[in-house]
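Hi again,

Forgot to attach this to my earlier email, sorry! This is the prediction with zinc ion bound. I've pasted everything inline since the attachment limit keeps bouncing my files.
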Amino acid sequence: MNNQQLAAIFNLIADLLEIKGEVIYVILAYRKAAESLQNLGREASEYWKEGTLREIPGVGKAIADKIDELLTTGSLRFLEDLKKEIPASLAEWRQISGLGPKKIALIWKSLGITTMEELKQAAQDGKVAGLPGMGEKSAKLILDGMESLSRRSDRLPLWKAAPVVEDLCNILGSLPGVATVSPAGSYRRGRSTVGDLDILVASENPSVVMDAFTSLAGVSRVLGKGATKSSVEFSSGVRAQVWVHPPAKFGTALQYATGSKEHNVAMRQLALSKGFSLSEHSLMGQDGTEHFFATEQDLYAALGLQWVPPEMREDLGEMALAAAGKLPRLVELADIRADLQNHSTWSDGEMSILEMARAAMARGLKVIAFTDHSQSLGVTGGLTIERHAEQQKEIEAAQREVGDGIRILHAAEVEIKADGELDYPDDFLATLDLVLASLHTSLRQPRDKVTARLINAINNPNVDIIGHPTGRKIPDREGADLDMEAVLQAAAKSGVAMEINASPYRLDLDDKYARRAKELGVKISINTDSHSAKDMEAMSFGVAIAKRAWLTPQDVINTWSDEKLLAWLKDKKSAN
Ligand SMILES: [Zn+2]
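Structure tokens for the complex follow:
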């Protein structure tokens, strides 16, 4: 049983306990354990074998016992008993917006129905409306909620979310009286997929913002419009909500709306321990005096904390570090000076080497590597060794053209073939400035086989970086079934860097594996995998993943000076 399966079980337990009416802290404990398992860079089964389950954040004795039972027997007595009390199919109803656990319990107990179909029927034929405290309006809300659920997937890929957020921030930011606009929620925390979009606006004149937001082109449905908060659904299925707060209280509101839930629970507990209660609006003393904060920095400082970067706000130990003034100096976009995976017209890219190099220069980069595809990947126009010799000439010409502006590396994205062999012979690989090895084909091989392919590439002394290690595509393609722990251990041993592919379609490694890589001392390379100049914008997404993994500039080879990077590329080869 893997971490995702365990997390699903704990979320199911939490859903059912909510419907049962269990106290909130018990439910939160299960949610927290589920979240933590989803973000863990190692399998819980490995902790279990070592007898160290309780080292997993959010896993106390009760949860550890349940994981033990699940891993030992494959099932859980507690859940089986719970399902006898509360039908498991009711947990699906929790995804319908506007239908909370109390209403679910009421409908189920009064009407004796348990499935989505039965619920739809009962909402249509007036049975739901006839229940105490429900009415026509509630029934309509449920039907609307069911319809929009069928239309959208629960998490948005960043490539879909980012343009919407950017547009909203631009439009709202230009309204009269608006001081600041910021995304909040999981988007601001840099997660690789996001739920509904949350945007916060600082203004003394909320009605202007609410009117503009709810009447935007592209809005298919206004889900709610209030004096300071509104939410809409766009025709694409994307949902967004906008809150307006006075500028003097913006910091508190932004902190609250950014989350995560777990981080905010820890913030409230800390406030309580200092004699305050912290809300979305203010920090209130026991005598009722309210303190307002225009910026998050002021709020964190009032609680004796360093300002915590949003990407770290997951209650994974950041609170203690912030209290001690010891937060790591995370890597920032401005630290990135090299982009080490790019494609040109020599394979499947859209722009020439010179055009791409100039675009990278314009973004302030000092090093760009061209990693056009290798020969076996025919669909991408993969290069033969002869074509590489011609490409080398064009790179030299482009280098003369740009002078000292940027250093152009002649590299390759070498296919790791289905049998584990690399797509070029070693003596040729040794002549390249940089070798990035990737899997694109036969991703569905059995775990042992696909893991062995990657490890074989890692152990080749000519390989510098493993590109998009799992091969996942967001949202539809799962990565290969890899033993990532074995892969990362091999990379640690050989000194190969693992990529955080910054493309919003990939984000691979994800934050949990990047964190584990850092623990093992594996270097990380964040690259955009650009096929045109526009793609280079994705670097910020990759940096966000790196920040979520708590990476510092030292961990990321793209931040290194030319001398250090080139020496590393060279040493790697000679050290092996
Ligand atoms: Zn690739």
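The pocket of zinc ion is lined by residues 413, 438, 440, 467-468 (CB under 6 Å). The first helix runs from residue 3 to 20.

That should be everything now.

G.
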